[in-house]
Amino acid sequence: SRGVARSSEGVVSVGGVDVHALAAGHGTPAYVLDEADLRERATAYRRAFETAFAEVGAGVDVYYAGKAFLSVAVARWVHEEGLRVDTASGGELAVALRAGVPGAHLGLHGNNKSDDELVAALDAGVGRIIVDSLVEIDRLADLVKRRGGDPAPVMVRVTTGVHAGGHEYISTAHEDQKFGLSLAADEGADSPAVTAMLAVLARPELHLLGIHSHIGSQILDPSGFEVAARAVLTLRAHLAERTGVLVDEVDLGGGYGIAYLPGEVALDPDRIAKDVAASVAAAASELGTALPRFSIEPGRAIVGPAGLTLYTVGTVKPVRLDDGRVRTYVSVDGGMSDNIRPALYGAQYHAEIVGRVSTAEPVLARVVGKHCESGDIVVHEVRLPGDVRAGDLLAVPATGAYGRSMASNYNLLARPPVVAVRDGASRVLVRRETVDDLLALDEG
Ligand code: LLP
Question: ipTM strictly over 0.95?
Fold first, then answer.
């Protein structure tokens, strides 16, 4: 009962649970997360990378990037599947710890972590703190000095100059953006990346564990990963020549692209793992260095396809376009507050009427939300049955990543629940917000 079940009657169930039962039991809109599917994706990534890297003689750890979506249950699932967890804030860190993920299996990211977040990470004994600036290196070392205890394990986030990913806002390794320390150096000077690593080595309160590179998100062209991996290994060899320190670990980040629309093809974990392993092995042998231990940080590829959003259609309105065509505006009971990605990135999604058969001719439709702005679009263009009507259930696939995790309360809408389905049963992972929850924050 994994995934979405289709019959001659269209989509009828998810994870073995009838879509009408989901809507009746949990209300709409609701995020529905297929537990078996998520676990299989987590394991597929772990196995693919372990196998391919073992073949070239290197170890690898897979960190689930919690920013894509994190709840206590999800952190526990990925932990049970042998993954570690990458967190990007004190909030994500707290959720992973509550799930029982050992501190040593956690990483903390961020370009502007607060002192509280850094101290929480030290208290939890996180396996690595990924530092992003010279200011942070000093701040962290000072905190460790005041607090006592072992040196903090640190990775330096570098910018390889590789431009990859689905949208400018989610590309992270070109020069003109806020993340990382550049590999590019002026003639005769150290690059910011080298300067940062020397700064870490100069502080006894820090242990330089390795180098981190994340090039972007929703990447469908795998060549960027290989270019970035080579650049990082070259930097590692250069540092070893300079200082005698050959760092133990290299993280290649996340960003593995998924299919959002019918006919799109996701990156294949086996393919990419093999290609990247071959390319790091070749680079290390050219450089004459031993391979480090590797890690990767997929988020979207684990949770994205495992989730869908279930809405109820409220109104249907034909609108005549300038060219004479008619577009049917289908309004659902959520919108940009539960999925900001179309408005923010121009992201494309698919939609289907589920739980009933229609033989009506399809019409050109646009699925919109209930917010007070016209950019509140869930699906720009999709063919829906011509008899689409109020009360229909509408599913938008592949919303598991960066849906609930980027949800807002715009127009003071309460955020939808996350409901897990497995073996024909459903359970709430994150409950629906209520207006009382919202009022409770208001001090009047
Ligand atoms: N590691 C680091 C350091 C990252 O910055 C990210 C994503 C990941 C891992 C996970 O990337 P993934 O495998 O999920 O692509 N809100 C945007 C995506 C922002 C990604 C930011 N960093 C979206 O909805 O497309």
Answer: yes
